[in-house]
Amino acid sequence: MIIKTVVVGPLQVNCHIVGDEKTGKAMVIDPGDEPDMILDVISKNNLTVEYIVCTHGHFDHVGAVGDLKTATGAKIVMNEGDLNIYDSAVELANYFGLELEPQPAPDMFLNEGDNIDIGALTFTVFQSPGHSPGGIVIYGEGIAITGDTLFAGAIGRTDLPGGDERAIRKSLDRLMSLSENSVVLCGHGPSSTIGREKRENPFANSSW
Q: How confident is the model over 139-183, as pLDDT tens digits?
């Protein structure tokens, strides 16, 4: 399995590129900005992108979706619960003093229990609301791609439109039930493991 992480944009989003070494098929998760840098990694690794996955619709995670779609022809996929946030990403970016072009509509929606097949690799979708209503985690092959639900030592904020503290608690509990050896690839910051987060993340070890 090929895993490449490109840190993009002013908010330092982790764009994860996951590919199957045997077939060269790949998915790009959260291309928030700097499409040329993302495409350079794709080209250098001889990958064919089949899916552009948005773990949620916030502007910093979707800003290069259109450029990636144009360059690769890949399908844009997300959970429908974040469609309104995705469609209003331009306005939210402007609120933070940043500019963003409108992104193309998703090609399909992912729901709880759906699989994403990338060559011989299989990842399962589970919904993880809290940071946003339609947040998703992509889990499989020993890794959990958590978007802004879980960070190393922290969790996603819930004070933006659509945020829900009670919901993110439930999503965190679910993540903590995964195998402790699972590698956590976060939307921002360093990677971790489920075991490390169970031991060290204050949100996993308190009633907050």
A: 999 999 999 999 999 999 999 889 999 999 999 999 999 999 999
Q: What is the pLDDT of residues 111-120, one digit of tens each?
A: 999 999 999 9
Domains of the chain: 2-204 (3.60.15.10)
Comparing CA positions, the residue from 96, 78, 74, 69 lying closest to residue 9 is 96
The yes-or-no verdict on residue 207 having pLDDT over 90 is no
- Residues 32-58 pLDDT 10s: 999 999 999 999 999 999 999 999 999
Q: Is the pLDDT of residue 206 over 70?
A: no
- CA distances (Å), origin 187, targets 14, 44, 86: 5, 23, 16
Cβ atoms of 31 and 7 within 8 Å: the answer is no
